[in-house]
């Protein structure tokens, strides 16, 4: 392994690249739109569900974009098909932007039914997973190798703020002042800045090869590099065991802590504030060896969940969840940066696409499993169980990730 590697870029150094800064602005606007959907899609589904039970309408509408995008991403991640990053981003911006704006206008005119809403979200969001991996690939492609850690951290900072703070707040405000239908129209418009940024900031790529003799699937790369699939296993189960917390928290606040919907909002707001702080703090962790840092984040999250489950008041729960947000935020950028150290440039697209697809699967699977769990054992016990399993996962990670020592490793193509 090389001993003389360039020092990792800081956030400020990476942002001196005008293309990257411009592209991140576009990502921020579209992520605000994604955050708005968290608040608006359930509200629109409740208004147009008709004879369908409200709970089914909300769950099907919320899951539609994950289902179609995951199904489409599978052949690109497991097979040898390639879609240029810039093409996937442009197509997703156009498809989602037009679909969401059209749904909002149709709903505002009183002509939207629940079947049309679900069907349109299925079709309009089919490129979402490919675009999510494409966003990361496009951003890191704008900087040299020693800037990738900073880019992953910046992406986390932008998305944490947009998804959990600005987006839901704006969506809720528009829905309250006007109607959720107009929030969908605004959401569709948020893809225009990302479209412009992609067209102007992301350079044109050379044609991709779909020749089986020249292209290698993400699955075959993972088989050839065992550390990459072991790391994926850790990431998948970390995301999976988080899901019971999301389901249990409202019951925990409303039940044992005798809180209200306003109290739940405060708890989530503090989590978002902690996540932003943690994402910004990721900048100062770039010299820390990434393997022990990743394991420490997993253990820290488990410990913070023990603190949350032990809370006896809304205030103590809010403080515990704020700390959890600080710990949670660096996980994704550190995990992806660690992964990049093992991949050559030609291996990045299929592997990152596979990672995004599998990571996305953890959310619906975890939510489905969390329902019966929370019903059976209650909110507090579910959070405790999630915490203890996550702590066990950190011990498993020590074992299966081996002893790779630091953030700068020899890449398969001989670069650092």
TrEMBL record:
<dbReference type="GO" id="GO:0022857">
    <property type="term" value="F:transmembrane transporter activity"/>
</dbReference>
<feature type="transmembrane region" description="Helical">
    <location>
        <begin position="265"/>
        <end position="285"/>
    </location>
</feature>
<feature type="transmembrane region" description="Helical">
    <location>
        <begin position="56"/>
        <end position="78"/>
    </location>
</feature>
<dbReference type="GO" id="GO:0005886">
    <property type="term" value="C:plasma membrane"/>
</dbReference>
<keyword id="KW-1003">Cell membrane</keyword>
<feature type="transmembrane region" description="Helical">
    <location>
        <begin position="351"/>
        <end position="377"/>
    </location>
</feature>
<feature type="transmembrane region" description="Helical">
    <location>
        <begin position="383"/>
        <end position="402"/>
    </location>
</feature>
<feature type="transmembrane region" description="Helical">
    <location>
        <begin position="292"/>
        <end position="311"/>
    </location>
</feature>
<protein>
    <recommendedName>
        <fullName>MFS transporter</fullName>
    </recommendedName>
</protein>
<keyword id="KW-0472">Membrane</keyword>
<feature type="transmembrane region" description="Helical">
    <location>
        <begin position="161"/>
        <end position="178"/>
    </location>
</feature>
<feature type="transmembrane region" description="Helical">
    <location>
        <begin position="98"/>
        <end position="123"/>
    </location>
</feature>
<dbReference type="Pfam" id="PF07690">
    <property type="entry name" value="MFS_1"/>
</dbReference>
<feature type="transmembrane region" description="Helical">
    <location>
        <begin position="317"/>
        <end position="339"/>
    </location>
</feature>
<keyword id="KW-0812">Transmembrane</keyword>
<dbReference type="InterPro" id="IPR011701">
    <property type="entry name" value="MFS"/>
</dbReference>
<dbReference type="InterPro" id="IPR036259">
    <property type="entry name" value="MFS_trans_sf"/>
</dbReference>
<keyword id="KW-1133">Transmembrane helix</keyword>
<feature type="transmembrane region" description="Helical">
    <location>
        <begin position="231"/>
        <end position="253"/>
    </location>
</feature>
<feature type="transmembrane region" description="Helical">
    <location>
        <begin position="20"/>
        <end position="44"/>
    </location>
</feature>
